[in-house]
Amino acid sequence: MTSHDYIVIGAGSSGSVVAARLSEDPRTSVLLIEAGGSDRSLNIQMPAASYLKAIANARFDWRFKADADPTRHGRRDYMPRGKVLGGSSSINGMVYLRGQPEDFDAWEALGNRGWGFADVLPYFRKAENNENGADDLHGAGGPLFVSNLRVTHPVSDAFVRAGVKAGLPLKSDLNRPPQEGVGFIQATQVRGRRCSAARAYLWPAMGRRNLRILSNAHVRRVLFDGTRASGVEYERSGQRESAVAGKAVIVCAGALASPQILMLSGVGSGAHLREMGVEVVCDLPGVGANFHDHPGTCHIAWVNTPTYNVQTGLPRILWFGARWLLTGRGPASTPDTHALGFIKSRPDLERCDIEYHFTPVGYDLTEDGPILFDKPAVTALANVHRPHSRGVVRLKSADHREQPLIQPNLFDDERDLDTLVIGAKFLRTLFETDPLSRFVTSEFKPGPDVCTDEDWRSYVRESGIGFYHPAGTCKMGRDPQAVVDERLKVHGVEGLYVADASIMPQIVSANLNANCIMIGERCADFVKSAG
Ligand SMILES: Cc1cc2nc3c(=O)[nH]c(=O)nc-3n(C[C@H](O)[C@H](O)[C@H](O)COP(=O)(O)OP(=O)(O)OC[C@H]3O[C@@H](n4cnc5c(N)ncnc54)[C@H](O)[C@@H]3O)c2cc1C
């Protein structure tokens, strides 16, 4: 049995940051335990390859399957989650987007002192190395490379120009408030390679003698001495092992696995744990509650120009790959999303509540994962920023190898469906606007039969899907459902923290990666200052 000051569970967007920052002090020893393996694969590092070869690949993806959602005719979502160093930041779409300032101010207004936008901005800047340099919002010199797109596509240009024609402001910096507008993304990339949290934070720290990274080790539970977290039990190569934590255990396993690990460790709803045969350490009913995701839907059109769908023959792949290896440019460097747009669903709203993604690749998001078409097509996605619906994560059994029960309840609150219908309708308007309309030969989804309000509601309910952004299941706060306090310490026990997307009391109005990295930065400071 080994002993360390700190044990970090999960080397994802937040956990990589926590482990790297804590081990900056050579007097501190840190053990980082990750269920997945190495991220030094072309399928992770080459942006275009990830979508085809990393997502849904058991070597890199947990491939969670949600339970039947009664709010969507029993649909069962496939939910990719990175199982590799870097976690989901190693398989994600690389869009660099922060929450709106009001998101963080709202967290603070809920009683989470020190989480307002003015408090979190320095941590976004500290993390960031923006290709465009530092300014009042952006950082330069941080570990996370944020780059301009290194590839263009005429249909992506047309989407942005159609957005402007439809009345949206053109944005050169999508992270500069107010969010409303349309523009090209910046990506978490370095010279055309993926810049995951592992590449940004762990690769430079791997040589430290005080940081031990244990990969391919599946955590079973946190061990307690009374109500004090004293270590971690994990399984590696079929063997059960454990490690001692002298100071603290930090759970960073993501919004699906963090609540599962807490519950397997005896921290959760007492009644549920007893039902599952788990000894209760702390009755904390909010563990696994407050699940939410960005509900979204897609718009797919056939187009009259080659998209990446038809550029997959062997000679082209070899050419794209060689170009990427030599210059870091070209289609192999492309994130799937090129442009984003943001609108208000109603003119009286103070801030945007709908986000659009545009990809010069045609794919459908199905219950079994993304399916790529074999003819020229494009896909745009609409999603709701701040959903009202809430789902839940619970144990299915006390066996850590069994996936938890995930009940998304995506449209439990009809307001989310109503908002998404507005967002989906405006997508059609964009596709009918010049110059995007010039490329479109026909609309595949929603399709010409979707015309009336009732058609739209049915379409959105049937096609609606969580946007791979689960959050909120160990929420920060002081109310009876809260799991961690504003310094990310788990209520009711000692020496235990949670830091990842699960701590968000309300999901941010953005993709989550940059926000989880910020949470990791903050947690490391909290843990350091607790001594
Ligand atoms: C396909 C996809 C595309 C996305 N696209 C974008 C995007 O373009 N931009 C963006 O901002 N966000 C995007 N996201 C979302 C974003 O990447 C995630 O929300 C974010 O990375 C979550 O960070 P996290 O720290 O909460 O968890 P994760 O990064 O998922 O980290 C959790 C880690 O814990 C490990 N772990 C879990 N259980 C155990 C266990 N029992 N034992 C040991 N280790 C364990 C996991 O293997 C993983 O490494 C995308 C997500 C996906 C899946």
Poorly predicted runs: none
The proportion of residues in beta strands is 15-25%
Supply the CATH class of the domain at 1-39 and 81-145 and 195-288 and 470-531. Answer: Alpha Beta
Q: Could you give me the name of the CATH homologous superfamily of the domain at 1-39 and 81-145 and 195-288 and 470-531?
A: FAD/NAD(P)-binding domain
The CA-CA distance between the termini, in Å, is 23 Å
Write down the Rg: 22 Å
What is the CATH T-level topology of the domain at 1-39 and 81-145 and 195-288 and 470-531?
FAD/NAD(P)-binding domain
Taking the sheet with the most strands, its summary is:
7 strands, mixed
DSSP helical segment count: 14
Overall average residue pLDDT: 97
Task: Summarize the helices and strands and which ones pair or pack.
Blueprint: E1 2-9, H1 13-22, E2 30-33, H2 42-45, H3 47-54, E3 64-65, E4 78-79, H4 101-109, H5 117-127, E5 128-130, E6 144-148, H6 154-165, E7 181-184, E8 186-187, E9 189-190, E10 193-194, H7 197-202, E11 211-214, E12 217-225, E13 228-236, E14 239-251, H8 254-264, E15 267-268, H9 270-275, E16 282-283, E17 295-303, H10 314-327, E18 339-343, E19 354-359, E20 363-366, E21 369-372, E22 377-384, E23 392-394, E24 405-407, H11 414-431, H12 436-439, E25 440-445, H13 453-463, E26 465-466, E27 496-498, H14 513-530
Parallel strand pairs: 1-2, 1-14, 2-11, 5-6, 14-27, 15-16
Antiparallel strand pairs: 3-4, 6-8, 7-18, 9-10, 12-13, 13-14, 17-22, 17-25, 17-26, 18-19, 19-22, 20-21, 23-24
Helix pairs in contact: 1-14, 5-14, 11-13
This protein binds flavin-adenine dinucleotide.
Flavin-adenine dinucleotide binds at residues 9-15, 33-36, 55, 80-83, 87-89, 91-95, 97, 218-219, 252-255, 257, 261, 468-469, 500-501, 511-514, 516.
